[in-house]
Amino acid sequence: QVVVPRPDIDGREQILAVHMKKVPLAPDVDPRVIARGTPGFSGADLANLVNEAALLAARRGKRLVAMKEFEEAKDKVMMGTERKSMVMTEDEKKMTAYHEAGHAIVALNEPASDPIHKATIIPRGRALGMVMRLPERDNYSYHRDKMYANLAVSMGGRVAEEIVFGYDKVSSGASSDISYATNLARDMVTRWGMSDALGPLQYAEADEEVFLGYSVNRQKNMSNETAQAIDKEIRRVVEQGYERAKTVLTEHREDLETLARALLEYETLSGDEIKAVLKGEPIDRGGSSRPSIPTAGSSIPKARRKSQGLGGAAPAGA
User: Fold this and answer.
1) Sorting pLDDT into bands at 50, 70 and 90, what band is 212?
2) Which of 51, 135, 212, 263 has the fewest CB atoms inside 10 Å of its own CB, making it the most exposed?
């Protein structure tokens, strides 16, 4: 197996500069800014990004490719194509707005969290909405505080739904968030020795290639008591993130309401626009007024509680 290393920020800037020579650029285009916002991109991903931006500019009849086209192309590559034709009811939009606002408010109040790049309630891919966070630099390892911050952020959407709409109105939209949090907590406990109760030991099997039924015949290397202790620790770690998110959103309930209203009005907000909204500053969108204020919590349709696992509704992702 050949592992191709992903270019760092300097490498991405150089690759972008090469591909950008093939298209006419507007003066506001900065390859460094684009390189910073594309961590983990391969050379092929960056080439695709430039092509998508050029196609967007051509469809709009523009002679030069501006930073706006690169931003939209980056969102398409990273988050999927916008499904503007998908019809969402006002109740669904409202639920999604508070869900994504919950993620964003927790992220803003977790010092170890990555900065928010963009929040949107426009459906992309399988998600009804999304909060995209981007690191300020390339990361090759993660610290404990960042892991706990990510757990809290992932729980922010579900907690926001419960705080605003009530226990019985919590939706299945947090399914991907719960999956992410559970997998992260499991790795913290079983692979990275982040549990004080279980110590710095590896309990998970190392990743090995499966062939000739090897995985079926693999011997169990832990007792039932240890397996139960692991399950208990995973649950504790996830619930700790849940409680942290609940504390943050309870303390910043007004910010949650303000940001949700702004998302309902503008549908997509950049990280800088989110900060401006929370400071009470206006957003220049060609004369758009300040967001109107809908009444929270009363118009979500009643749903029957299910005893089984989360349903198959498109997740409102983290």
Assistant:
1) very low
2) 212
